[in-house]
Amino acid sequence: MFKRSFPSKDRAGKAVKPAKKIYREHTKIRIQQNLDSPPIGSTLTGPIVTLIVGRDQRLFAAHEDILSLSPFFATALKGQFYEGASKRVELLDEEPEIFSSVLEFLYKRDYYPRLLHNKRRNSWELEDARDDLNLGGRGSVESTIYHTGVGGVLLKDTAIYCTADRFGLDELKRLALRKQGLQSGIQVDVILRSARFAYDNTPDSDSRLRAHYLALIIRSRKTFKRSGTMQMEMEIGGSKLFFDLFVAMCNHVDDIVEMS
């Protein structure tokens, strides 16, 4: 499921206190702009679908043609989640802020913060990212959200990846994983909570997001070794994460021995 050795360029970074994210007004404005200005070259003529999202039943609207780019919605709009002429879909288990990013991707092929190419460095970076530690285009921006289903803070891109997996959006999964790799300065408890969330919300066949967390923990093993949170999480157990981590670290040690 994962490679036997991992690159060493990434790190957990300096810990910063994550702030609880709220559903921002300008996100809703961007979605409405998407509806008013469809993608260039688009010939959207289909009906508008109302989507009821999350425990607070927030309302979204999107073109049926756009939603149908997702295999999940292509089926849902014809199946039990679809209420005939009313064109309503209920997604009460989804997080509104995460869903807004998914919808933004369906319209614009990206979501905030966008992935930008830095011509001077010839590298990719996140829109509005702060690179205080001079990490070569990596920094912290819009990195976490408060997930009501978990009752804690998660890495936003992990939540988007898992939602994209449910909706059958492989391109969005690749984008979310790439963006997460550019984040830095995330606290250990957030990483571990997000890793558990990833394991709980991806199939065992997932070979990308899970492997990303295993590699991250191994690369930052000194930080995690000193972490009381890591010790507590391992003592609680109950996750395949820690067995996979054990196997990955054994493989990592074997590679070092073979090279020596």
Automatic annotation (TrEMBL):
Coiled coil segments of this chain: none
Superkingdom field: Eukaryota
PROSITE patterns: BTB
Limits of the BTB domain: 49-107
Xref: Pfam families: BTB
Protein name as annotated: BTB domain-containing protein
Organism: Heterodermia speciosa
